[in-house]
Amino acid sequence: MTMELRDLAMQVARIAQDAGKHALSNQVTPRSLTEVSAAARDYSRGLELDGRLSQFIYNRLTYVDPFNGRWDERSDEWHAGDRYWCIGGIDGVINYTRNMAEWSVTVSLFEFNEFGSAQPILGVVHAPALQLTYIAARRSGAIRMRATPLGEKREKIMPSTTSSLDGSVIGFGMSFKSDEARHALKVVADIAGRPADMKRVGPSSLDLCKVADGTYDAYFEPHLHKWDVPALSAGAVVLWEAQGQLSNWRGDLIHWRSENNLVATNGLILDDLKPYLVESWDNAQPSDNAQ
User: Fold this and answer.
1) What are the chain's domains?
2) Confidence grade of residue 148 (pLDDT, cut at 50, 70, 90)
C-alpha cells in the first residue's frame, strides 16, 4: 500500500532536518570572506554545498520511496500518477554565505495528473538556524514545528485575516539584476504609506511560509526563475494547505516550467494589492508601437 502523504511528509521533514544540521555546521565554520566575490555575484561556497545537500537528501529519499526519480532529471514521457522528487539545496544562499539565519532546505514532491499537468503535492521547508520546519501534504493541512525550551512544538498554521493594505505587513523579494529588481521596487514605492511595514528578508520559500502562518499578510516577487522551482514548490504546498492563495501578478496559475511573477496572500488582501502589481508590470512591458 502506498504510504499516506502525511506520514511521508514527516519522514521527508526528518531527512531535511538532518541535511540542515550539516549545512548549519558548515555555515558557522570560520572562514575568510575572500572566498566570496560579491562584485562577481559568486556565492560559490553555498552553491557547492547545494549539490552535496541535494544528493544527500535524494539518497535518503530513495530508501523511503524513489518514485519516478528527480524532477530535474525527468523525461518528456509521463503517465498519470508519476511522481518526482524536487530537491533544493540552500534557498537563500546569499543569506547563508553572509551568516544570516534566514535560509532554508526544501523538498517537494510533484505528481502528474491525467492531463499531463504536474503539481506539487507535498512540501517541506526547513530553516535550521531558525529551528523551524514547515510541513504540508495534499488535503492534510500544514503544520509548523519549532524548537522550544520544553522540546519540539507542533502547530497547525493558517494565514492572517487582514483584508486591506492599510496597516498590513507585506513581504517582497527581488533579483540582484537591476532591470528585474526595478519591478518590485516600483510596487514598493507605489504602496508605501499603506502597509504598516514592508519586509525584504527572504528567501522565497520562507516568505511563502510566513504568509501561510500569518506573519505576513502577503508576499510578492517578480522574475522567479527555473532554479527557484524547488523553493517555490515546497513553500506553495505549505501555503495552499494553510488555505492561503498563490498566483501570478494577474491572478493566473503558477507555471512550474517558466518564469513567474508571484504573489502569495491570505486570500483576503489580493484585491487591494493586485492593481499595484498589474500596473507595475504593464508599465514595464515594451509598447506595441516601440521600434
Assistant:
1) 5-156 (3.30.540.10), 169-283 (3.40.190.80)
2) confident
Residues belonging to the chain: 291
Tell me the sheet residues that pair with 211.
Answer: none
- Using CA atoms, how far residue 177 sits from 44, 104, 285, in Å, is 18, 22, 17
Q: Give CA–CA dist 33/44, Å, rounded.
A: 12
Nearest residue to 203 (alpha-carbon basis) of 134, 111, 282: 134
Q: Which of 115, 54, 113, 114 is nearest to 85 (CA)?
A: 54
Strand-pairing partners, residue 144, are: 134, 155
Asked if residues 35 and 48 have their Cβ atoms less than 8 Å apart, the reply is: no
Q: Which residue has the cell 545537500?
A: 53
The amino acid that residue 50 corresponds to is D
Cell for 21? 544540521
What stretches of the chain show up as alpha helix (H) in DSSP? 5-27, 44-64, 93-97, 178-191, 204-212, 229-241, 270-284
Q: Is 76 annotated as belonging to a binding site?
A: no
Confirm or deny that 157 is annotated as ligand binding. no
Q: What pTM was estimated for this model as a whole?
A: 0.91
Q: Is 91 annotated as a binding residue?
A: yes
> pLDDT per residue over 28-82, tens digit each?
886 555 454 555 455 555 567 888 899 999 999 999 999 999 999 998 888 999 9
